[in-house]
Amino acid sequence: MTHLPPIRGKYLPAALALAADGVPALPLRAGKVPFGNCPNCTGNACGGRPNMKTPGPCDCPLPCHGWAAATTDPDVLNSLEWAFAWREAAAVAYHPGGAGLTVVDLDNAQAIAWARATLPATRTVATTRGEHWLYRGAMQSANAVRPGVDIKSAMAYARWLGPGTGTITALPDVARALAVKPPTPVRPAAIAVPAPARGGRCPHRTPAYLARGIAMAEQRITEASSAVHATVFTTFLAVLSTHGRCGCLTEAHTARLFTAAQAKGESPRHCADAWANALNRLGM
């Protein structure tokens, strides 16, 4: 590739500094969007990276594949072929997943408050509307995992806004679980269920069956070694799908499940949200 003349654009030095640290960088146009596909790559004519959704080979010398154009090669960043992009660039971005990082993008004050109550402290970077929390470790990217919260890691880009403050820590399971879609439960065949007996006793299950079910649910949560948030949700879902419609569950049963979840790091608010979401999923 041919190297740039002295006029390089004000964002190229930052991109070169990122690349030197092993962080793949790319230019962004106004509006924080990547440069569009060049004529040679229209319709995936180059044979790689269709719609920026999958990695793949491409011989195009231009930065036209969004996150997949991010590179740590200074010769590419500093080449004449990329000169137009750097001269027009409005910002520099990076591919977190390519650097083994995950960005939890918090878009407002409510999202930041949730993160402070839920996620372990790590390096933070101030953004226009909120904060980026950076963790060591890559994962699946996902948008709107919670109100005002996006995950940017593999096959995504994040705007570079400076090194931030604080010590970067390992990606926690609670963050990984945010991108896990809870499985759709299989609804049991419709059966006629009589009204619950006095005292909350389940008319179609023995008390021993209910006690064993609650104990098994507690054990499942307690033994979760990863994806705790998703495990709590699916466990609540299983309990409610079996016993939620007959009136046999009591506040004592719910408290046992919440206690087990909180012992694994879930907050009381998370427990309440997971229980409410399970009720909604079952139409209860």
Mean pLDDT: 81
Task: Please write the string of helix (H) and strand (E) elements.
Answer: HEEHHEEHEEEEEEHHHHH
How much of the sequence lies in strands comes to: 5-15%
Number of helices: 9
Instruction: Report, as a whole number of angstroms, the end-to-end distance.
Output: 63 Å
Computed Rg: 25 Å
Helix content: 25-40%
Largest beta-sheet details: 6 strands, mixed
Query: What structural class do the secondary elements suggest?
Result: alpha+beta
Low-pLDDT residue spans: 184-201
Large-scale geometry: elongated
Description:
The strands form two sheets. Strands 4, 5, 6, 7, 8 and 10 form a six-stranded mixed β-sheet that branches. A hairpin with a 3-residue loop joins strand 1 (25-29) and strand 2 (33-34). The protein is built from nine helices and ten strands. The radius of gyration is 25 Å and the shape is elongated. The protein has 284 residues and is an alpha+beta fold. Helix 6 packs antiparallel against helix 7 (228-243) and helix 6 (207-222) packs parallel to helix 8 (251-263). The model is unreliable at 184-201 (pLDDT under 50).
Keywords:
284 residues; alpha+beta; four-stranded antiparallel beta sheet; 9 helices; 33% helix; elongated
Give a topology summary:
Blueprint lengths: L11 H9 L4 E5 L3 E2 L39 H4 L5 H6 L2 E4 L6 E6 L2 H10 L4 E4 L4 E6 L5 E5 L2 E4 L5 E2 L9 E2 L2 H6 L28 H16 L5 H16 L7 H13 L4 H14 L3
Parallel strand pairs: 6-10
Antiparallel strand pairs: 1-2, 1-3, 3-9, 4-6, 4-8, 5-6, 7-8
